[in-house]
Amino acid sequence: MMPALKLLVLLPGAACFVGFTWGTLRHFRSTGPVRPGMRLIEAVSLVVMALFTWLVLTRPLPDVWPAAPVLCLGSLALFIWTVRTTRDAGFALAFSGAQPPAVLTRGPFRHVRHPFYTSYLIFWLATCVATMSSLCWIGFITILVCYIVAARQEERTMSRSRLAAEYARYAARTGMFLPRLDRKTPTGPKDLET
């Protein structure tokens, strides 16, 4: 029988992975064939999730293991909040090149420009904390680079669209993956929506 502590690490991790998979398949719209960048994210995600599961099951948990389920639950909460906020927004898969129909500034978008990517990165950080494996860290860094590239591509698309000025104002006050510490207070009713 599996020790309860290992279940405390694996179950929140599995919930995140299942939620993210659901998002890829059901929440985001597909705009054609899946691009190589998204394929890379999918492949690395599968490998790191399998590695995470195997390491948790076969090795002693490191002293910092309690942070992993906390990170997973935070990741999942942010993901669900972002899904609820974007339910009708028609967001496309990463690397699709599709432009969102509007600049969202409510919900988690009030704090970061790419809350989906932030939620994923928090989870992948949790796999590193739970295992202290250099291979998990390599996977995390690979996925981080992929999300930086995807976010910058999405932002270039926005900067060439009819939403460019609105997005530039939003980006000036909102961090990419982490909230800005110097962020000014909300400027209008649209910013106050949650």
Give a nutshell description of this structure.
The chain has helices spanning 4-27, 36-58, 67-86, 115-131, 134-159, 164-173, 189-192. With 194 residues, the protein is an all-alpha fold. It has one domain (12-179): Four Helix Bundle (Hemerythrin (Met), subunit A).
Count of alpha/pi helices: 7
Distance between the termini: 43 Å
Helix and strand pattern: HHHHHHH
Number of domains: 1
| Helix/sheet category | mainly alpha
pLDDT < 50 stretches = 187-194
Number of extended strands:
0
Quickly give the CATH architecture.
Answer: Up-down Bundle
Textual characterization of the structure:
The chain is mostly helical and 194 residues long. It has a single domain, classed as Four Helix Bundle (Hemerythrin (Met), subunit A) (Up-down Bundle), CATH 1.20.120. It is 64% helix and 0% strand. It contains 7 helices and no strands. α1 packs parallel to α3 and α2 packs antiparallel against α5 (134-159). The chain is elongated and about 55 Å long. It starts with a helix and ends with a helix. Mean pLDDT is 92; it is low at 187-194.
Question: Keyphrases for this structure?
Answer:
194 residues; Four Helix Bundle (Hemerythrin (Met), subunit A); disordered C terminus
Per-chain topology:
Layout: H1 4-27, H2 36-58, H3 67-86, H4 115-131, H5 134-159, H6 164-173, H7 189-192
Helix pairs in contact: 1-2, 1-3, 1-4, 2-4, 2-5, 3-4, 4-5
